[in-house]
Write a structure and sequence with these properties.
Number of domains: 1
Order of helices and strands: EHHHEEEHEHEEH
Helix content: 25-40%
Radius of gyration: 16 Å
Number of helices: 6
Pfam family, one: Acetyltransf_3
Domain N-acetyltransferase: 11-176
Protein name: N-acetyltransferase domain-containing protein
CATH architecture: 3-Layer(aba) Sandwich
Distance between the termini: 20 Å
CATH topology: Aminopeptidase
Number of strands: 7
Length: 182
């Protein structure tokens, strides 16, 4: 069987399709996931989510800043991963990831992250990845430590949610560190 770079041992990454809107809409109604990923925003209509999915499906590929759907090898949509802050001069980038609640703790997040790291480090010559994690997101901290990320910093009281301020943790991994774990 041929090697496909966008496929891992449990998931594959693919473009977001217009028909994915319903699962993303339901996920957007889970305030705990919204808080863990970014922030709690106002409600979005089904039509608004359909428009978002259509917009994501129409985006062209620039090779660096992207959002991809995460699906199981059996084809079930389980979340998304996006890259950002891609600094071509310095070879650094960041990413964000969200797995739908019904699919937590099945290894999908770590597999999706590994696929993106493999692409950026082995194909695009990037040198370092950074991940920002809210201090109350214990599962994400454990996941990144298990993947070999190092905690590099703490920005105190950077996030206000659920009635209190929380720290923002900065985790990082170099290409050399990734190659030791790959």
């Amino acid at each position: 069987m041929a090697f496909y770079i966008w496929e891992g041992t449990k998931v594959r990454l693919r473009p977001i399709n217009v028909g994915d809107w319903e699962k993303y809409h339901l996920d957007g109604m889970d305030s705990e996931i919204a808080r863990l990923n970014d922030a709690i925003y106002g409600p979005r209509t089904e039509e608004g989510t359909k428009e978002w999915a259509a917009s994501e499906a129409e985006k062209g590929w620039d090779g660096h800043n992207f959002r991809l759907a995460i699906e199981t090898l059996g084809g079930e949509l389980v979340g998304s991963i996006s890259t950002d802050k891609c600094d071509l001069q310095n070879g650094t980038f960041s990413y964000g990831l969200s797995i739908f609640r019904d699919h937590w703790r099945k290894g999908y997040a770590s597999d999706a992250i590994h696929i993106v790291l493999r692409y950026f480090f082995n194909e695009l010559r990037f040198q370092k990845v950074n991940a920002s994690i809210y201090s109350f997101n214990e599962s994400s901290k454990i996941l990144h430590e298990r993947l070999g990320f190092q905690e590099e910093g703490r920005l105190r009281n950077m996030v206000y949610t659920n009635g209190s301020h929380h720290d923002l943790l900065i985790f990082g991994m170099t290409r050399e560190e990734f190659l030791k774990t790959d």
